[in-house]
Amino acid sequence: MGSNYSKADCVHDPPMDERNLTALKDYLINYTLPEGHEGYINILLVGLVEAGKSSLINTFLSALDPNGKTMTCVPTGTNPESLTPELRSYTVAKIKFWDTTGWNAMKPNQELKVILRMILEGRIPIGTNLHDFNSTFPEEYPVIPGNAIHGVAFIFDMDTVDNIDADKMKQFHELQTMVAQKYVHRVVIGTKFEKLGIEEKNHPWIYEYKPLQQKFKQLSESTGMNKQCMFVVSNEWNGDKITMIKCILALYALENIIRNIDCYLKMSA
Fold first, then answer.
1. Contact 154/178 with Cβ under 8 angstroms?
2. Among 110, 132, 130, which Cα is nearest to 119's?
3. 90, 138, 188, 225: least buried by Cβ within 10 Å?
4. Closest Cα partner for 176 from 187, 165, 166?
């Protein structure tokens, strides 16, 4: 049988050793915004129900912990509280992650676009229940200083992405196009990639894995986003510490987001 790995088609080649882990963590924890900007880098997670948004934030928080301690600050799918449709935020260093309910459980498509646009602009207060939110008069909600979104991570469950119907994928295309028109940085982050059958010992070569490359290709064709903007992050672990490989995968994706946003902030200063 042929190999499941293909270097020629590899999208990324993240550094996979302890020295680079230290460099990634140092950069992100000690990151400061460019001159003329204050507050935090705001990163919004958008995805379907149970795509892994909340557990992904826990992975980022764990990867940024000085001791790599696994964090469970964010209620996940196993916790009933995770299903509350509130706009929430979680902060570490100068990075603030924004979490909300799955977009397919929210308003009809047209209203969903208005709500997403208002979140991007920083008009919706933290703790707002988006199921009950009335977006009829968005101009009545002023911009909250420091709440404007700098980057959006669209989250996909790599195990079930092939089962997303055409209408939902069309919605996603429309949402990411709207985000692009707001000049907000965009990436795709795949979760639950372990279910594709790759063993943990092979995670350092995850981006060379042919089944993952094929899923990235399909996502690129259906969403209009470049494969270079697609990453995978594990949202599964055992024990009280995140492994070095899973930590690097998380920080590698996060560093890409922060560096791109940093460049934009410097140009717009």
1. no
2. 130
3. 138
4. 187
What CA–CA distance (Å, rounded) separates 78 from 75? 8
Tracing tokens 């928080």 back to the chain, one arrives at 61
> In which residue are the tokens 């060379």 written?
208
Task: Give CA–CA dist 202/199, Å, rounded.
Answer: 5
Instruction: Measure the CA–CA gap between 214 and 220, rounded to whole angstroms.
Output: 10
B/e letters for 113-150, b = 16+ CB within 10 Å, e = fewer, are: bebbbbbbbbbbeeebebeebebeeeeebeeeeebbbb
What does DSSP say about strands 88-92 and 95-99: parallel, antiparallel, or unpaired?
antiparallel
- pLDDT per position as a tens digit, 135-186: 888 888 999 999 999 999 999 999 999 999 888 888 889 899 999 999 999 9
Predicted TM-score (pTM) of the model is: 0.92
